[in-house]
Design goal:
It is built from five helices and ten strands, in the order αβββββββββαβααα. It is of the alpha+beta class. It has a domain at 31-182. The strands form two sheets. Strands 1, 2, 5, 6, 7 and 8 form a six-stranded antiparallel sheet that branches. A four-stranded antiparallel sheet has the order 3-4-9-10, with no helix packed on it. The radius of gyration is 54 Å and the shape is elongated.
Length: 261
């Protein structure tokens, strides 16, 4: 009897431990229990733009109406950031979606327990919700990606598929909305052309012309008339001397002729 009681206690203890472990795993996998819990957590965007790392994750902030929003700006997309988006095929394998660019998802507290992306039908949806979002971008692009997590409604595709009633918000089916803006960076300004240099000779010539224009022609003429050259003065004196000598000779000869008569 004693052994039987001990066995029952052991079995009961094992069962309780097993249930507790299962409950712990379920709670961890389920994450938040209701939509209202999101406000108590950190909402962020992570993706190929930061190598899916917690470092560089972009925070989304609530604008007061339950819509979390943020902007991922990439000034220069690198080759490593551009990937081909894939989705789960429902059997655990990934298939290409035909999109190529920057991929990302929204998640809570830097963890994958609760995350959101593009809508997928329930039969292919992964345990941590939809597949990655993707915006087209190429290497070298400057892009701004606006991301919204709208906690006030269900994804319209989920409503159309009959997965949930429109007025009963299921936090696993709230939509991620996003858009991308490609920024056209301004071309670098061209170096200004150097100002044309005025040759020194031009300046000199202009100055000479102005000086010449300012000097009346009569000044040069008057100067030539009133100031004889030294050589001209000497010639005039010699001519006068010759004339005087000739006159003296003529006077002497006249006197001699008068004396003979």
């Amino acid at each position: 009897m004693k052994s039987s009681k001990i066995l029952k206690v052991v079995i009961a203890s094992s069962l309780v431990a097993s249930l507790a472990a299962t409950a712990a795993v379920s709670a961890n996998a389920a994450g938040i229990a209701k939509i209202e819990d999101i406000k108590d957590h950190k909402v962020g965007v992570v993706g190929s733009f930061n190598d899916w790392s917690t470092e560089g994750e972009i925070a989304l902030t609530d604008n007061g109406s339950g819509v979390y929003e943020g902007v991922v700006e990439i000034e220069k997309v690198t080759k490593e950031m551009v990937v081909e988006a894939t989705a789960d095929d429902g059997n655990g394998a990934q298939v290409k979606t035909g999109k190529k660019g920057i991929t990302f998802k929204v998640r809570l507290d830097g963890d994958w327990t609760d995350s959101w992306g593009d809508y997928e039908p329930a039969y292919v949806r992964t345990w941590n919700s939809q597949t990655n979002c993707c915006v087209e971008a190429a290497e070298g692009d400057h892009v701004k990606i606006t991301v919204k997590l709208d906690t006030t409604k269900n994804h319209p595709d989920a409503v159309a598929a009959g997965e949930v009633e429109a007025d009963e918000i299921d936090y696993t089916l709230i939509p991620v909305e996003y858009s991308v803006e490609k920024v056209e960076d301004a071309a670098p300004a061209a170096d200004p052309e150097p100002a044309a240099q005025t040759p020194a000779t031009t300046t000199t010539d202009t100055s000479n012309d102005a000086t010449a224009a300012a000097t009346p022609a009569s000044t040069s003429t008057d100067s030539d008339t009133t100031t004889p050259a030294t050589g001209d003065t000497t010639s005039a004196i010699a001519l006068v001397a010759v004339v005087l000598a000739s006159l003296g000779t003529a006077v002497v000869m006249t006197k001699k002729a008068s004396a003979k008569d």
